[in-house]
Each structure stands twice: as structure tokens, then as C-alpha cells.
Write a structure and sequence with these properties.
Layout (H helix, E strand, L loop, with lengths): L7 H12 L3 H6 L1 H23 L3 E2 L18 E9 L2 E8 L2 E8 L4 H12 L1 H16 L3 E3 L17 H4 L4 E7 L9 H23 L9
Antiparallel strand pairs: 1-2, 2-3, 3-4, 4-6, 5-6
Length: about 220
């Protein structure tokens, strides 16, 4: 079956999971998760794959080995189209609605160094600043992990000091669970946002690239 939207049961499932994040709740409502959350997300990403590439669906289980919060399940279902490690396009469904994003989510130290060098250089940094401004003007949020202070080696008066503080950078938009989210229109909204994020993703792929450090 093709993608027909995320049904109301998807939001009800996550509302319940937020209230009772337990193995018992998940086991009792697994069928709702499979039919209302996972199956529509698979259908959505399958239909978008021809234009954007295949997506990886994240597991519902949290990795709690080193976390203070031992809640066993994520309160959202995400999918990621990876262009390079940590760089790509993202979509997520949760009780809060539909979230769509694109950019760089995690960076190794060598990627952060290349990112800041590219932001510092006018030939590459000015186009990124223009991209960020255009996305913000179009109604998207431009965010990511940031330092509270300026990075070492850069002055507070740098014309792109805000971008230089970023350790990750992505644009996103969150849609409330309005009626259209439960229709095929959701696919077009996701596709439109991903197209808007493509220049940012391309910039990151060109200037940040994949990590050259060995994976642990």
C-alpha cells in the first residue's frame, strides 16, 4: 500500500508512551506502533527514495547504557537519508506532530575543524550565511549544537561568529498534528522541505565532508 499519511493512532501511541514509557506499554501497543507508525514511515520513505535516496529507520529502543535516563523507548520515530556520515535529510513523527530537517547532526573533530575553516573563509562562508538567512526567512529554524562562547582562535567581531559557534548545523520545521498530516499531503510537505534544505546539505557535503578519523 502507498503512503496515505500518519493516522491519529500514531499520535495516540506516542501520547501514551510519553505517559508510560515501559516495556509493558510497548508490548501491549506494539500492533499500533507497527501499523500506525512504522508502516506509514516506511511507505513515506519508500516513495521519496527515488528523488532523495533510501532512508534508514531508527529503532524504537533507546541506548541506555551510558544514559542517566533509563526510559527504554524513544518517544518519536525518525528516518534519515544519509549523504555523508552525519549529513543528510531527516523526518520524524511524534506526539508533537511531524518534524522535517536537513543538515549536519553530528560531527567528528576533523569535520568541525573543516566546517569552521569554511565558515571563516569569505568565499565559502558568505554563501552559507546567505543560505541560513534565506532558510530563516522562509520560515525554517536554523539550529544545532553550539558553543556558548566563541571558538578558540576567532574574535567576537567575526562577521559570522554565530555560525562559527555551531558544532552541528541543520534547518528544520515542525508541523502540528493537523488533519493534513494524516493524508498523502504529508509526503509533499516533506519533499518540499527536503528540496529547500538541499543547498545546505550540498554545502556541508562539499566543505565538511565525511570524517577521516577511524570509527571506534
Amino acid at each position: 500500500m502507498g503512503f496515505t499519511g500518519f493516522p491519529d493512532e500514531a499520535f495516540l501511541f506516542y501520547e501514551g508512551l510519553e505517559a508510560d514509557n515501559s516495556k509493558t506499554y510497548f508490548a501491549e501497543h506494539r500492533r499500533r506502533y507497527e501499523e500506525a507508525v512504522r508502516a506509514p514511515m516506511l511507505a513515506l520513505t519508500d516513495e521519496l527514495a527515488a528523488e532523495f535516496g533510501p532512508a534508514h529507520l531508527f529503532r524504537p529502543h533507546r541506548d541506555v547504557r551510558f544514559a542517566k535516563d533509563k526510559s527504554p523507548y524513544k518517544t518519536h520515530q525518525g528516518a534519515f537519508v544519509e549523504r555523508l556520515p552525519g549529513i543528510g535529510l531527516y523526518v520524524e513523527i511524534s506526539a508533537a506532530g511531524l518534524f522535517v530537517a536537513g543538515g549536519c547532526y553530528t560531527q567528528a573533530s576533523d569535520q568541525v575543524a573543516r566546517y569552521r575553516a569554511a565558515v571563516d573563509e569569505d568565499l565559502s562562508g558568505k554563501p552559507l550565511a546567505a543560505l541560513a538567512d534565506a532558510l530563516a526567512a522562509a520560515g525554517y529554524t536554523v539550529e544545532g549544537a553550539r558553543l556558548k562562547t566563541r571558538p578558540r582562535g576567532f574574535g567576537d567581531d567575526h562577521p559570522r561568529i554565530g555560525l562559527l559557534r555551531h558544532k552541528s548545523l541543520y534547518a528544520g520545521i515542525r508541523f502540528d498534528p493537523e488533519p493534513w498530516v494524516s493524508t498523502a499531503e504529508a509526503r509533499e510537505r516533506v519533499a518540499a522541505a527536503w528540496r529547500d534544505f538541499a543547498p545546505l546539505v550540498d554545502w556541508l557535503c562539499t566543505h565538511v565532508r565525511g570524517s577521516e578519523l577511524p570509527r571506534r
